[in-house]
């Protein structure tokens, strides 16, 4: 008998990838201590190598950290890291140099909750089936939204950006989950807490159908920047049936023909140390011991 498969399980929708989260930081040295020494990530060696901006690689994704602000992302970024014990050791090693800032971390149920020197929150997970085969990467970005907004946000992504979406109850709150490629998500969790002001931080995504969403957004005056041939921006998620604004987060939207789509990123092995140096183990390779 021929095998049967649920082919829908392989559908990824129109959003191919979440590439980066961009927040401004006022001090590039402290940012280096936190992101590189503390989290064990890698500064991109090829682009943005001066003191006015820093790109930090997380597997195939990045943080973009231009000088300024600081920006506070409303919500948190979910990261997958190879080893939570090694992560906490790195964070402990950075603690003294980050004293007097908002830096903090705590080992919680199945993840490590970390706060950067300016208050941005990162939730670090060990590799797990829910994150596919990712051993180092940006798994999701989660935003707090007003009660009653999750369904409309899901409709926006499903209708306008043509992404598979679900709305499910989690911990007593409705959460809209938007599928991005084969292993990432955007999450929008309803909360009664006051909505924090928006300061202009952004996320970058790649689309397969680049022009269709642009036409829909442009017709309604929602495109905020015609950046280049391969890129545009919008910053307001609306209820597609009424146009009512639901949440603000700038999307840097790129086509899959953008020259930086799936650009290979360098990731170091943070376990390498001068006293214990092992030849040939400078780079991070998923699954390597």
Strand content: 25-35%
Q: What is the gyration radius calculated from CA atoms?
A: 19 Å
CATH superfamily of the domain at 12-202: 2,3-Dihydroxybiphenyl 1,2-Dioxygenase, domain 1
Helix content: 10-25%
Per DSSP, the total helix count is 4
CATH class group of the domain at 12-202? Alpha Beta
Shape: globular
CATH topology of the domain at 12-202: 2,3-Dihydroxybiphenyl 1,2-Dioxygenase, domain 1
Spans of at least 5 consecutive residues whose pLDDT stays below 50 are none
- Round the mean pLDDT to the nearest integer and report it: 94
Gap from first CA to last CA: 41 Å
The biggest sheet, with number of strands, parallel, antiparallel or mixed sense and barrel status, is: 8 strands, mixed
Q: Which architecture name of the domain at 12-202 does CATH use? A: Roll
Could you walk me through the main structural features you see in this protein, from its secondary elements to its overall organization?
With 289 residues, the chain is of the alpha+beta class. The chain has a domain at 12-202: 2,3-Dihydroxybiphenyl 1,2-Dioxygenase, domain 1 (Roll). The chain has 4 helices and 16 strands. It has helices spanning 28-38, 84-94, 150-159, 211-219, and strands spanning 15-22, 42-43, 55-58, 61-64, 76-80, 104-108, 111-115, 121-125, 137-145, 165-170, 173-180, 184-190, 202-207, 223-228, 231-238, 245-255. The strands form 2 sheets. It has an 8-stranded mixed beta sheet. The longest helix is centred in the N-terminal third of the chain and has 11 residues, at 28-38. The mean pLDDT is 94.
